[in-house]
Design goal:
The protein has 283 residues and is α/β, with parallel strands linked by helices. It is built from nine helices and eight strands. The protein has one domain: Metal-dependent hydrolases (TIM Barrel, Alpha-Beta Barrel), CATH 3.20.20. The longest helix has 21 residues. The radius of gyration is 18 Å and the shape is globular.
Length: 283
């Protein structure tokens, strides 16, 4: 059972303000005890944007900021935007739109540059980048890594976290070292859709009981997420918005109170500099 003093943060979910559940998903999350959200912009093409320049991503970022402001009116805690360019865009640009890998990478870096403006102004909390989680050729892989490194450079300059969408792995020390080479501490690099064990970045653990049990037993910093995608064409994909609060209840029932505090108070403060207790005002 979640008490009134326990913050509950979903570290990575998407909201579609125009085509699917949007704010209703936030209400579902709040109704079962959820208090805080990190809302990651949907892939640009899912919001109807086929970018030609970095400035074209601005519409995606602005719409995400708007739905976060709406979510803040629903939550007893608060929400923050995480903005960036989905790494899968590179395949769309190269395979469907005729870009070379280098041209695609340059466009995506320009999108990251625009996202960084919102972090600099205080309108967004963190950046999102990464590389494809599926097999690609060497040129696409190299261009994708260059985009990710650009995000690390901005993260270092802005002292903000970078969330990564990458291949499945339990050892990404090399990527954490790239971040540190750019001046961004490894604890400000977050691998989303992580298992319960990860070397290098901070794992944002998919909220399935086996993964959470591994993370809880490990005792290292971790976050919890659903990767809810709010897609009307894929209603059963990934996890629903009620999952994190329900899994917090499960952790508490199984004597993992320290792990709950780790994932919802201590690690958010370590990674993002946010205080989920101070920003919690339960009715």
């Amino acid at each position: 059972m979640i008490d009134d003093e326990t913050p509950v943060l979903d570290n990575h979910l998407h909201l579609d303000p125009d085509n699917n559940r949007g704010i209703d998903a936030v209400r579902d999350f709040a109704r079962v005890g959820g208090t805080h959200l990190l809302v990651v912009n949907k892939p640009s093409w899912h919001l109807g944007v086929e970018a030609e320049t970095g400035e074209d991503f601005r519409a995606v970022f602005e719409r995400t900021i708007e739905i976060v402001e709406e979510a803040n009116g629903v939550l007893e805690g608060r929400a923050w935007p995480v903005l960036g360019v989905h790494p899968g865009l590179i395949s769309r640009l190269v395979d469907d739109r005729g870009f070379s890998p280098e041209e695609a990478g340059e466009l995506m870096q320009a999108g990251i540059d625009v996202a960084a403006e919102y972090v600099a102004s205080g309108e967004a909390l963190a950046l999102k980048s990464g590389r494809p989680h599926y097999d690609v050729d060497d040129a696409v892989w190299e261009a994708s890594n260059a985009v990710m490194r650009r995000a690390f450079e901005h993260g270092a300059d802005l002292e903000c976290a970078v969330q990564l969408h990458t291949e499945a792995s339990e050892d990404m020390t090399d990527v954490a070292e790239w971040a540190e080479d750019a001046g961004l501490p490894a604890h400000k690099v977050v691998k989303h859709y992580a298992s319960g064990r990860l070397e290098g970045p901070i794992p944002s653990v998919m909220s399935e009981t086996d993964r959470l049990e591994t993370a809880a037993e490990r005792g290292e910093p971790f976050l919890m997420e659903t990767d809810y995608i709010d897609d009307p064409d894929r209603p059963g994909a990934v996890l629903g918005p009620k999952t994190v609060p329900r899994r917090v209840g499960w952790l508490l029932e199984n004597d993992y109170a320290d792990a709950v505090r780790n994932a919802h108070v201590e690690t958010p403060k370590l990674v993002y500099g946010i205080d989920t207790e101070e920003t919690l005002e339960r009715a």
